[in-house]
Design goal:
With 219 residues, this protein is an alpha/beta fold. The protein is built from eight helices and six strands. The strands form two sheets. It has a three-stranded parallel β-sheet with strand order 2-1-3, sandwiched between helices. Helix 6 crosses helix 7. The chain is globular and about 50 Å long.
């Protein structure tokens, strides 16, 4: 049995990104990420702080816009419009979830697709499903990087993705499919989930529940 060391791979990726950023800096370009956080959600604050720390460690610019819970949808859209037009900003990331009075889809669709580093804009979703280059959601892309770093062949394998969210499940299935796997998407309505998983050579669980996958579900 081989245990995949995610932290080790993360450090390797960060070193590569840092080298690329330094090369751009030597040409007078500082790649810069703008992160927008609305409200006081503790988990979101932790994620944003982690992203800011990683961005700076990789020699990139980091701009954080921390807005109060009372921020209106129009105010948020106006900020995104400014960031879209700002040539010093290369990427825009809106931390989810947003407060209930804000339509997340409208916000995500307002981001310039060329700055949509989360890969949630419909144009980038379409590119992913068409096998074209574009921004890809980070968790599925990270999983593909883990498989690549450990020389785990994907092409020709039977893969099961448990979960169908737009953030992880669906893009994960698309990446595996693009890499040549035969993919099944399982979810809360799937009958006999254990049997479905037993037929898989690669299983990705994207349901946000610890210990969801049990030994009897793995061949």
């Amino acid at each position: 049995m081989q245990i995949i060391d995610g932290k080790e791979i993360s450090n390797r990726v960060k070193e590569r990104v840092k080298a690329e950023a330094l090369a751009l800096k030597s040409n007078g370009i500082t790649p810069t990420l703008a992160v927008i956080l609305v409200g006081e959600d503790k988990a979101s604050q932790t994620y944003v702080a982690s992203k800011e720390k990683s961005t700076i460690a990789c020699e990139m610019g980091s701009v954080a816009h921390k807005l109060p819970e009372s921020t209106t949808q129009d105010e948020l859209l106006a900020l995104i419009e400014l960031l879209n037009a700002d040539d010093s900003i290369d990427g825009i990331l809106v931390q989810l979830p947003l407060p209930k009075h804000i339509d997340s889809n409208k916000i995500l669709e307002a981001i310039d697709p060329s700055k949509d580093v989360d890969g949630f804009h419909p144009i980038n979703v379409g590119k992913l499903n068409s096998g074209l280059d574009g921004f890809v959601p980070c968790t599925p892309l990270g999983i593909m990087e883990l498989l690549k770093e450990y020389n785990i062949e994907v092409s020709g394998k039977n893969a099961v993705v448990v979960g169908r969210s737009n953030i992880v499940g669906k893009p994960m299935a698309a990446l595996l499919l693009n890499a040549g796997a035969t993919v099944t998407i399982a979810h809360s309505k799937t009958k006999d989930l254990a049997k479905v998983c037993q037929n898989a050579e690669i299983i990705v669980v994207a349901v946000g529940k610890p210990n969801f996958l049990t030994a009897d579900m793995v061949s």
